[in-house]
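Recall the central idea of this unit: under ordinary conditions, the amino acid sequence of a chain determines the structure it adopts. In this exercise we apply that idea directly, starting from the sequence alone.
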Amino acid sequence: MPLRKVSNFIVALRRRSLNELAPFAILALAAAMLAVFAKIADEVVEGKTHAFDEAVLRALRNPADLADPIGPAWLEHVMRDITSLGSFTVVALMTLVSVGYLLIDGKRAAAMFVIVAVTGGVALSEGMKHLFARPRPELVAHLVEVQTASFPSGHAMLSAVTYLTLGALLARIQSRNRLKAYVVSVAILLTLMVGASRIYLGVHWPTDVLAGWCAGAAWAMACWLLALWLQSRGEIEPATDGDVAGSG
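Accordingly, the structure predicted from this sequence is:
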């Protein structure tokens, strides 16, 4: 067998292995995120996280004036801008733009998948806020206006749901692994930045954000598993030729 054919066979075999292992890896990660969320929620309900939460919030403020965040004045403005990336308005716009693109590209089922994933994440976030009804931090001044309950952080959860889902979709239409890694890395970075901004601005306890990240990531991965299953049944448009299923 010519060397080129052997090389192509090895590449095809490797892709098949990744295709078969990807759903199990995603399932394991989703289960791990749920386990961490459950642990945090249990600790919050029992009041065991207060010392940690308070220490982190105090560390981000001027000891002489808890209304004054650490860092230069421009950092507060930057954090306000970053936190808006996880707002309902921005998330809704990002979702509508992405859905519009998918519809124009003829991927109606994928567009519906995005809508279900994001709206389901919103509903889940609001439901958990009402269930836990944790008050917002009063230890430090809030640097942006807030109205809902604190646990879990809606901004952290919705940014995880939206950006991880869209990042996975974008990664699947890339043929180069470097581009896939870049897209997913940006999605993760945006999610982390939004959550961190909520703590810096004093509107969430750190455990609110950690829980939001875990719940959002678990939801995004669960939706992606569903998408892979539907795709295998031909109910969602397949990825671009040469792509590795589930690699996002």
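The longest helix spans residues 3-45.
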